[in-house]
Design goal:
This protein has a domain of about 230 residues. Helix content is about 80%, strand content about 0%. It is mainly alpha-helical. The longest helix is centred in the N-terminal third of the chain and has 38 residues.
Length: about 350
Amino acid sequence: MANLHQKFHSEVVKSPQSYGILAGLLLASGIALLAEYLHKIPSLSLFSSLILAIIFGILVKNTIGVPKIFQPGITFSLKRILRLSIILLGLRLSLPQVIAVGPTGLAIVLVTLVTTFVFTCWLGRQLGVNQRLTKLIAAGTSICGASAIVATNGVVESKDEDVAYAVAIVTIFGTMSMLLYPLLPVIFQITPQEFGIWCGVSIHETAQVIAAAFQGGEVSGELATIAKLSRVIFLVPIVLSLGFLSTNSNRKSQAAKKLNKLPIPWFVFGFIALMLLNSINIFPQTMKASVIEINHFLLAISMAGMGLKTSIFEIKKAGVKPLYLGAAAWLFISIFSFSLIKTFY
């Protein structure tokens, strides 16, 4: 009888948490659905549904507010769903796609990514921007926009406001690249091949890359997409390196540094495994297309959750220095990658 009473009490205690997870998930999913719908409107189609989801989440958080009952589900969206989404991103990439860029193109991708990341981290220290936010901006600029930011946050563990600030920065400057790049091929005598690689190597978000590159023709668009996806694979070593570096800089006792205590982003290994399986074409094309579409919605749910935990007041406290850092990183990756392409490609 005592055991039955204890079990009943345990279920009663757990039920608010379960309702909270469900409520938060429904709220984030509703915002994600709204973002997906509005993305189809021509005037808003320049912005990905991921960006719209985080904007609407921020609006809800900072206007009507978010009651505590929703918090468990919002956290679930940011942790569990996001990690699953990153694993499923492996379906968008295969080794043959990476090889198609060519050794020179891959070398330009790698050199640009690493140099931009290092430069952004160095400049962040010079400007006095906190190092966690600096790493988020560096990852978003050099790798793959918002997806890289939220994946990197899995190991640097910055504040939600820092993540939202970093996403806003890469959105602003990625959008500027998307609008400005198509005006430049005639001025600088850029070939369709060079333009495609340049877009893929230096523009922040995948949607922005596609929107800009296909204005230069089919060849530009296809090369840009492959180059952009090639950048995604470098998310793996960057996140792993940051995870181990954060462990080494932690001054806890050696006993606490057991394997289960290391901030290893295990979801990254899931990403690698799925990419390798995709490389041997074991997934039917229709199934893969469906999973990729579903995964995009899962990412939108995670972005909505991020917005729902973001306080504009906290972002304001970070000041304008991170914005300057994002601008400098954007100019650096644009000019540096263009110089490499014109010299070696």
